Amino acid sequence: LPDETMESTVRKVLNTTYEKLTNSLSQDNISDEIKYLKNRLLTLKEKSSLDPIYIGLFGSTGAGKSSLFNAIIEQQFFLPVSGSQACTSCIVQVSSSRSKNYEAKIHLLSLQEWKEELKNLVQLVRKPGEEEEGEEEEGKGEDDVGEAVQKLQALYGRDAEKRPYEDLLRAKPLVNIPPAKCIRLEGAKELSDKLDPYVRCQSDKDEEEAALEEEKAKMRLWPLIKYVEVTIPKSDMIPEGVVFMDIPGTGDYNSKRDEMWKESINKCSVIWVISDIERVLGDKVHEVLLKESIKAYQGGMCSDIALVVTKSDKLHLKEYLRHDAILERNAFVKGKKIKGLKTKLGRILPSDSEILNKADLVYTVSAKEYWRKKYMNKEETEIPKLREYIRNIFLKEKKKLLMDYVTEALSILRNDVSFALLPLQNHYQQSGLEGFVEDKIEALEKEIEKCFAQLEQPLNEGVKQAKLSHQKAFSRLLTRDTGYQGFHMTLKAVCQKNGVYASRVFARIDLNSALAQPIYDKIDPMFATNIILRTLEREILKKKMAVYQSLPLSIQSDLKPYYEEAAKIQGLRSCQRMQNILKENIEKETAVGMFEKAKEKMKMQLQELKVRDTSPCSVGLYLWVWVVLCGNSTVSTEGAAQSKLPSQNVGQRYWSKPSAPWDVQFPPRADTM
């Protein structure tokens, strides 16, 4: 391919230049300037031209994420599949490499992380006492603690949920727990078989299977797994550099895994929201996942969202009617979901946003029919269409990053090495760049200040609305019109986890985000259109994400003492008492400025993005941002000292966009231009 030829040629030139420079100079008496040039060359020749492109498969229990992924890579049973049951128990990352082997690295919770989870699990499954019998009914709420029971039984045997925490802490687990685990095999089927007990949730069916292999049972480490990295040999189905992330459910009860769940979503370049066709219209969990995906898009790291509707072959009709009926329903679902998704995105994005004008926002797929081909051909299953989507995303990103890489390399190679004969500081001053950049930093800060000022009014309006609506948010999440049978344990879990709980029954409960939502409703359009922050580098986008997520974290910090107090409540009418503690103290914190404090923290973090520093790091960053705002990717310093403005002549041989804010390419001396 032309892109590969270009990269190969540039790397050869970089290697040759570096070797010649190293061989021709004495290592004992080398100037700082030459060291700088060598280090820049070394960094570039070792640097990858393509950052990983993370594609997140984000779906609810039984949505068919694993089956979909297996079809995409043309391996029917690679990741474990199990009908409508929760099967994949942790985040699984899959990428390709040039190795001939299949490899899986299994990362476990640390001992301290497991102790924390064990304590919470025991509290969660603890049966209410006799004085609470009027509040809790046998069998109610079991869905919400079922996974906790399964985890305890998987590691400590039957009736483990009835044993106290101290007893379990001293007990020897039934499974063999290695310090780390890496599996390397030549075949996909062999790796899948070995991987199965580590990533598959234990189900009731597993417990009832008398023929379950004893050795396999001893390896059921899924309660202790933090995440799994899988590498497969080079494949046409997964371009090198693309990383798939199978992200299960709506989070995790374990704090570390839930944190990873959130981080995984936030670092995805592309998010696929996966939903079963029978649950896609109006399903509560689906809406939660879609909302989280849109938040990730708002944060800046995610550049594309698609809704993938699975199991499109599920239709109970006579065989001769099924083909046309499937395609007709697919078209109906697509039309309805595209309209709904564009409406949601349209509320927070400019009308000319690329994602709003995409032809394909929704895919209706059938992994089962892809293999079976009974009612649909392969093209109609839309699996090939998703592969093409992956390839287009990859080529688009690779081309952009490759051009950045090549431009950066050329900017160094075209610099006359003679600049290094003068002290770097003299070169910096002689070029006239220092005064030019100082002026541009000042002008840029004024522009940034204008952008921040535009957030002031929406923030104030959002705070005002949040203070008026916090009681509604509380009631919507933590009260039940149908009674509180079984809700006691869910509410206790919410308190134990400081207001955030991935419930199996009620989807993801996040009281802190719900309280902050009125503020987001007001500021979301500003975050979507902020050109300065949207065009900054990846490192700055991460900071933007932290700023965007600061509101619920600030609220959580203020409410944490009350969550802890409520989590300790036991006995008669405990559910109502926990609600009262939370409700009264949310009211109290609102009165003393909880929402205003969250607003000020967000503003403070925004201000921290303005770094008043003329070090090489900041100079490179600010000049690059200025260039972006001017609409150029490069700038010449010729005449800069006199005009104080970037030259209209695009001087690619002088400046290129840094690969990171701290990577600066110095222009040649003014007397050599």
TrEMBL record:
<dbReference type="GO" id="GO:0003924">
    <property type="term" value="F:GTPase activity"/>
</dbReference>
<feature type="compositionally biased region" description="Acidic residues">
    <location>
        <begin position="130"/>
        <end position="146"/>
    </location>
</feature>
<feature type="region of interest" description="Disordered">
    <location>
        <begin position="127"/>
        <end position="146"/>
    </location>
</feature>
<dbReference type="Pfam" id="PF00350">
    <property type="entry name" value="Dynamin_N"/>
</dbReference>
<dbReference type="InterPro" id="IPR027417">
    <property type="entry name" value="P-loop_NTPase"/>
</dbReference>
<dbReference type="InterPro" id="IPR053082">
    <property type="entry name" value="Nuclear_GTPase_SLIP-GC"/>
</dbReference>
<feature type="domain" description="Dynamin N-terminal">
    <location>
        <begin position="55"/>
        <end position="282"/>
    </location>
</feature>
<dbReference type="InterPro" id="IPR045063">
    <property type="entry name" value="Dynamin_N"/>
</dbReference>
<protein>
    <recommendedName>
        <fullName>Dynamin N-terminal domain-containing protein</fullName>
    </recommendedName>
</protein>
